[in-house]
Specification:
Radius of gyration: 12 Å
Strand content: over 45%
Distance between the termini: 29 Å
Number of strands: 7
Helix content: under 10%
Number of domains: 1
Strand order of the largest sheet: 3-2-1-6-7
Order of helices and strands: EEEEEEE
Largest sheet: 5 strands, antiparallel
């Protein structure tokens, strides 16, 4: 079972812990190893989920085609 912690998509929806966040998707910056990947990749969707079976957090990033 996965619990969605954060989601942002190209439709303009940004939610954290199930609550709509008042910001634009274009205002989001995603840092991987200190590098902002949004400068090089146009993202269609970003989801952060907690996988309850393993108690691990997973980050799913879908690049826009």
């Amino acid at each position: 079972m996965e619990e969605e912690v954060f989601v942002a998509n190209s439709k303009g929806e940004v939610k954290a812990l199930g609550i709509k966040v008042n910001c634009a998707v274009t205002d989001l910056h995603i840092y991987v190893n200190g590098v902002d990947i949004t400068k090089n990749v146009v993202l269609e969707e970003v989801r952060i989920v907690i996988a309850r079976e393993q108690q691990q957090t997973a980050v799913m990033v879908t690049p826009q085609k």
